[in-house]
Amino acid sequence: MSKQKIQLSDHFTYPRLLRFVLPAVGTMLFTSIYGIVDGLCVSNFVGKTAFAAVNLIMPLPQLLATIGFMLGTGGSAIVGITLGEGDQKKADRYFTMFLLAAAISVSVLAVLGLVLLRPIAILLGAKGELLDYAVRYGRILMLSLPTFALQNMFQSFFVTAEKPHLGFYFTVAAGCTNMVLDVLMVGVWGWGVEGAAIATFLSQIVGGLLPIFYFLDHKNTSRLHLCKTQLYSKVLLDACINGSSELMTNLSMSLVNILYNYQLLRLAGENGVAAYGVIMYACFLFIAVYVGYAFGSAPIVSFHYGAGNRAEVHNLYEKSLRLIAVVAVTLTAASMVIIPYVARFFVGYDPELLALTSRAFRLYALSFVIMGFNVYASSFFTALGDGVTSALISFLRTLVFQIAAVLILPAILGIDGIWLAVTAAELAALAVSAAMFVTKDKVFHYRKA
Fold first, then answer.
1. Is the pLDDT score of 20 beyond 90?
2. 3-class DSSP string for the chain
3. pLDDT attached to residue 443
4. What pLDDT does 3 receive?
5. Which ranges constitute the DSSP H helices of 365-414?
6. pLDDT of residue 198
7. DSSP characters over 307-372
8. What is the DSSP string of 170-200?
9. For an engineered disulfide with 383, which of 45, 100, 298, 443 has Cβ 3.0 to 4.6 Å away?
10. What is the pLDDT of residues 245-289, one digit of tens each?
11. What digits encode the pLDDT tens for the residues 197-213?
12. Half-sphere CA count of 281, side-chain side, radius 13 A
């Protein structure tokens, strides 16, 4: 029975739910791991100035690629609901349209990014060698934006297609490509930040273009396939609205990261930006578990919501909150143990930077016990097609509360206020998430349906 294929239409027990979402969690974890290798190679082989430059400019390409995230989550929810309603052909047409819309729009933004890259780096406070590294790294990442967006979209759509394990395999292939090329191009051949950027670009071709050939093959058992399509403007708008929480999350994270870097340059110089970069790379591992679970479970919720199976949606909701509570406590405890080792891997060559990074990471890690509930709440409402509620949670959590915290707390606590800002923002967002669950009658009436 344990080997039986899991389908979206199943009733989900804890073991079945975990088996279905684990590939998505693994996908996000592996994505984080090869991102960490990127940072390790730049920091240890090129130096802390190059490492600071990479982290200073990284939010810009992430900002411009947010449309891909939006159409991936918002579009996969609509496709999942359509599958639940039993219309396979329409689901395929929507799927194809979302991919084309993302590829075209992100390509246009990539050109814009190339034009604005240097002025924005200067605006962020980069100058001299820091500016040079940031521009050299950022130019190559701008060229990779379309494949970056598609790679992130496929992570959602592989789950909706009932092939989460394939999404994981493609991510592993992309990650191995990136890690091997990082070591060769940066560590062995000495190509510097350009080598790290090229390695990332080539890995995203593996993760963002090769899946297209899989979905073009109509002989496989995927629930989704690429086909002839047309512009469904209302559906595209609905996907944008429904995925606006993901757009807001990534847009806000990019803007907030820019603000963090600006404050840190002002308070601690390059060391502050480098320390924040270490935290971001390491946090990817912890956040990846929450995001992976949210991505992995959302298509199940969408399918059963589209099929009118309210009892199963409620079942998924209750089990998910219990699982997240256990994981939150476990991850927070684990982070406190591994923090010194992670910091030493990245910046052990600089005692002053190592001490700053270790303290900063401990304060930042307090947020892990809270953020999982907020990530799931936003994803859950997106899966129901309630993009407005989802976007509200994301908007307040990742933008309003964080900006307020990162501007106010440093004035009271100094640089420690920056590291505690995310915890303060997550606490405020948790109150909003809880209020949304309580006030949305449809969530708590599932059991009665």
1. no
2. CCCCCCCCCCCCCHHHHHHHHHHHHHHHHHHHHHHHHHHHHHHHHHCHHHHHHHHHHCHHHHHHCHHHHHHHHHHHHHHHHHHHCCCHHHHHHHHHHHHHHHHHHHHHHHHHHHHHHHHHHHHCCCCHHHHHHHHHHHHHHHHCHHHHHHHHHHHHHHHHCCCHHHHHHHHHHHHHHHHHHHHHHHHHCCCHHHHHHHHHHHHHHHHHCHHHHHHHCCCCCCCCCCCCCCCCHHHHHHHHHHCHHHHHHHHHHHHHHHHHHHHHHHHHHHHHHHHHHHHHHHHHHHHHHHHHHHHHHHHHHHHHHHCCCHHHHHHHHHHHHHHHHHHHHHHHHHHHHHHHHHHHHHHCCCHHHHHHHHHHHHHHHHHHHHHHHHHHHHHHHHHCCCHHHHHHHHHHHHHHHHHHHHHHHHHHHCHHHHHHHHHHHHHHHHHHHHHHHHHCHHHHCCCCC
3. 46
4. 54
5. 368-383, 387-395, 401-413
6. 95
7. TT-HHHHHHHHHHHHHHHHHHHHHHHHHHHHHHHHHHHHHHTT-HHHHHHHHHHHHHHGGGHHHHH
8. HHHHHHHHHHHHHIIIIIIS--HHHHHHHHH
9. 298
10. 667 777 777 778 788 888 888 888 888 888 888 888 878 788 889
11. 999 999 999 999 999 99
12. 28
For residue 291, the one-letter residue type is V
